[in-house]
Amino acid sequence: MAQKWNLQDIKPAGGKAPKASLVREVQIQAPERRPRTDIAPRIQRPEPIETQFDDSDLSTIDIIDGKSEKRHRVIVTSAVSVFIIALVFVVNIFLGGADVTVHPKIRDVAVQSSFLIYTAPQTGELGYELLSLEESGERQVKASGKEQVSLRSEGKIFVYNKSTSLQRLIKNTRFESPDGFVYRIKESIEVPASIKDAKGVVVPGSVVADVFADSTGEKFNIKPTKFTVPGLKGSDQFDNVYGESTVAFTGGFEGEKYILDEQELNTAQQALHVELRDKLLKRLEEEKPAGFVVYKDAVTFVYETLPSTEYGDSLATIKEQARLQVPILKEPELAAYLAKKSVTDYNNESVLLSDPQTLTFSYTDATTGTTDIKNNQSLDITLKGNTQIVWKFDEDVLKGELVGKKKSEADLVLSKYSSSISKAQSEIRPFWANSFPKSPKDITITTIIGE
Known about the structure:
The chain is α+β, with helices and mostly antiparallel strands. Helix content is 19%, strand content 36%. The chain contains six helices and 22 strands. Strand 16 and strand 17 (315-330) form a beta hairpin. It is elongated, with a radius of gyration of 54 Å.
């Protein structure tokens, strides 16, 4: 049996026993080291390659500081953004104002009617004004000689009757001018009695009569004037029946006249007529007044042959005068007249035609287009076609009502125009503004017809 030892019985080599408080030193042999097989082999790093630089290469190397470049881009972008925002604000301030887009009330109508137009219209009638233009020209025509001729002057007069009874005048009844020149009517006529219009004004009855001079000679080529009827002198009808010319009489001649070839004369006259006609139509396009409707098919031409003159030994100069006449209609009056005829709920509002030229014009009597209409008191016309009647509104008044109003009040203002405006939109600048400008000139109204 092995012998047991107490800790106190162990003596150190120096001969003294340790104190009971000391810990006995024990030597522990470390385990034997074995090579580890679970460790990955060490990676052999490649040796750095040393690069040789030449001094000349330094000039081609760009050294970029990434942080500096990024900071530069941020600054530039911010500056541009600030500039754009500032520009928008400045533009809105200096270009401030309001735009109002208006769609007026419109109605499609089909027109196909004949009616009278008058120089002095009464209530419910359509009036017109007569536009007249004149041009003259000349041509040289070969003459074969001269001859002695005696010719009477001729023309037309309007014969009026202010009495309440019909007046008959037989063929060759004399009419005398204030200067004593006497003319005779070619055919018998009946002049209607006068009537009273809606206002009680006496409107004389009238007819047109062809007259010729009582004698030959150029002195009878007189200008427009008034005439009395010598045969009625001493009766009440002398003051009631009278004549009036509106165009100078022509044709009177006494003396030698050129003998011209008839065919050559006609050719020269026709060429001259075409030239004068083209000149007058060009002038009509340039001189037609604003606010009036002019239809080219309403134009009439009257040509007058003036006395020819000598041109050299064997040529004669023929002269022609052309007069263009056309009835012109005020557009608002024409539109209102057609609206009354075509639109059942029309209530005398101000209207216009979207395009008056979509209507075709013609005279009910085709011969009217080749006659002198200067003294007509009425014309019988026909209009056909499709057009649009557009209701008008006063832009200046609308601007005045919008001035200084809040944006929320625009609908209330525009609602007052419901009889003439179908819809409207408004936009105020700058975009943050809540009220319309304080000056009407800063408000722009754009009218759009149709969608």
